[in-house]
Amino acid sequence: MAKIAYILLCHKDPDAIIKQAERLTAAGDYMSIHFDASAKSEHFKAIRAALDDNPNVTFAHKRIKCGWGEWSLVQATLYAVESAAKAFPRATHFYMLSGDCMAIKSAEYTHQFLDDNDADFIESFDYFESDWIKTGMKEERLIYRHFFNERTQKWRFYTSYHLQQRFGLTREIPSDIQVQIGSQWWCLRRRTVEWVLEFTKKRRDVMRFFRTTWIPDETFFQTIVRHVVPENEIRTRTLTFLMFTDYGMPVVFYDDHYDLLLSQDFLFARKISPEARDLKRRLGLLYAAEGVHFQISNEGRSLFKFLSGRGRIGRRFATRFWETESTLGRERELMIVICKKWHVAKRVLERIRQVTNVPAIEYLFNEENTPLPDLGGIQKTLGKRTRHRRALMRMLFDYYETDRLIVCMDPGELDLLQDFAGDRSITRMLEIQCKFTDNYLIGHAMRVGLAGEQTSSETLERLLPTIRNDMVFESDRIRDAEFENMSRMREGATVEENTRALSNFLSIGEDKAHEIASADYLFAD
Questions:
Q1: Average pLDDT of 37-65?
Q2: Phi, psi (5° rounding) for residue 162?
Q3: Measured between alpha carbons, how far is 160 from 172 in angstroms, rounded to an integer?
Q4: Which run of H or of E encompasses 486?
Q5: Which residue pairs from 204-212 have beta carbons closer than 8 angstroms and sit at least 24 positions apart in sequence?
Q6: What percent of the chain lies above the pLDDT cut of 70?
Q7: How far is CA 298 from CA 237, 241, 259, 364, 484, in A?
Q8: Cα dist. 232→117, 119, 120, 228 in Å?
Q9: How far apart are CA 288 and CA 183, in angstroms?
């Protein structure tokens, strides 16, 4: 009978991790956990305290900080696999999971399925010949060296990339390796795992190569497994059910997806909504059940495509999330910095980035060239961003894998502010009130096309009071809107006053807020 060592990579929600470990090991299986070293230490302590006495649970022998697209995700997986291989000699299979995966079949069915199918289940498509990568970088992921995180160090990532392009600093792929690509959610036999671990020790050249590729969790195991295992023993598919929207973002499953999930030809599903409490309860009971018959129809993807292409009433697959009734997510926090002097807001954002780990995006609804990830085209124009604003914001939350996100907006965007304030998510706002000199107002008039190089000084003198009053009017409208969770920084206020405003807005201690507010260049023109 198959015995599974689950490899769990996670970074949040310790209660759900504990329940998942207890549920899966109660059926006689095992679990090896890597909890991100950048996550809250008290969460890891709670997990250890709850599971240390469970003989079927072990932890990665080393914890590291993980970042999307980095080698760190592969390294964390290897640490957890190494610990599992050592701690659980009776494990016959190793199955990759994330914190938001859940079993959609019983343990009885799962074990029988693996007994009946003596193979490795891993998506493994030819990197260059397949169309697995739809948009963005392809060959560039491999032939250039990627040292920085594209999400948290965007400028460094792209500067390094463009410099290598400019000077032709490409590299060769190891000659005996045919790079493959696929989902990171795999299930491998013990023999295969041992061969992979042996390969990592012998082929240091291949390890060096993958360490500086971009998004190696989609290529490393997919390539090495095909290198060490005969092709006829590989099933090029994942056993974890997941779907994607038209924009390439994962579909989230809710309470009313129970019947659909059970009918799919998969053992687990990803991503289960944190709010789907009844679905989690029912799936949890299902894993321990015996004698359950599953009617496999496997229509999930085609049905979702059909329904999502026509619009619908009800929430079987959740509403199209750019519609009015959509939400960013009840547990998420959208923090909006509002400032007419864009350069001031950008300086404040840069200081916030330096002091906190919260992703922050500049004037995405005002500047076309604001750096944004490829989200399937919705991010390309200001018109699309504004028209599908909630979709865009929800996709950015998912892209950065965060529940807290900071953006900048111009105070003239009152409709956008009111729309986000009306969402079921938590919306916090920080208005930065600045003083406007005549020189600044003249520059602003030229930037927005109200004046040009040939505009006479007499015309500018008549224009300036109107522009100044317009800026005051925008600020008054924001005040009249009486938004909840509104804080204000002011040019000319004391550092202590601005510290309190930042502390309240960011929900951080005053020591960190003071570190941001005390920068003497924030309000300089």
A1: 96
A2: -70, -35
A3: 18
A4: strand 486-490
A5: 205/174, 206/174, 206/177, 209/171, 209/173, 209/174, 209/177, 210/71, 210/74, 211/71, 212/71, 212/145, 212/146, 212/147
A6: 92
A7: 14, 10, 11, 40, 46
A8: 12, 8, 10, 12
A9: 27
pLDDT, tens digit, 9 for 90 and up, residues 298-332: 767 765 665 555 443 333 333 333 334 457 877 89
Q: Compute, in degrees rounded to 10, the torsion defined by CA atoms 124, 129, 131, 134.
A: 110
Starting from the edge strand earliest in sequence, which strands make up the sheet with 240-241, in order? 102-103, 268-269, 240-241
> Residue 69 is encoded by which pair of tokens?
């697209």
User: Which amino acid is present at 425?
Assistant: S
Nearest-angstrom CA–CA distance, 225 and 229: 6
User: Taking each helix axis from N to C terminus, what angle separates 510-517 and 342-355, rounded to the nearest 10 degrees?
Assistant: 140
pTM of the full structure: 0.64
Lowest mean pLDDT among 22-36, 255-269, 409-423, 461-475: 461-475
N- to C-terminal Cα separation, the chain: 71
Tell me the average pLDDT across 113-119: 96
Give the 3-state secondary structure of residue 338: strand
Nearest to 327 by CA among 339, 315, 337, 336: 315
What is the residue whose two structure tokens read 């129970």? 258
Tokens of 169: 């600093």
d(CA 242, CA 185): 10
Which alpha helices (DSSP H) does 309-433 contain, by range? 342-355, 382-387, 389-400, 414-421
CA 413 to chain centre: 27
Q: How open is the CA angle 358-363-369, to the nearest 5 degrees?
A: 110
Phi-psi category of residue 492: left, alpha or beta, with phi > 0 → left and psi -120 to 50 → alpha: left
296: region left, alpha or beta (phi > 0 left; psi from -120 to 50 alpha): beta
Sequence letter at residue 158: Y
Q: Above 60 in pLDDT, residue 166? A: yes
| pLDDT (average), residues 11-35 | 95
Q: For residues 173 and 231, give the distance between their C-alpha atoms in angstroms, rounded to a whole number.
A: 21
d(CA 436, CA 341): 9
Rounded mean pLDDT of 264-276?
Answer: 90
Q: Is the dihedral of CA 311, 312, 314, 317 positive or negative?
A: negative
- pLDDT the model gives residue 316: 38
Mean pLDDT computed over every residue of the chain: 89
Q: What is the pLDDT, as a whole number, of residue 313?
A: 34
- The owner of tokens 């400028």 is 155
Task: Check residue 273 and give its pLDDT.
Answer: 87
**Distance (Å, rounded) from C-alpha 305 to C-alpha 296?**
19
Does residue 69 contact residue 137 with C-beta atoms inside 8 Å? no
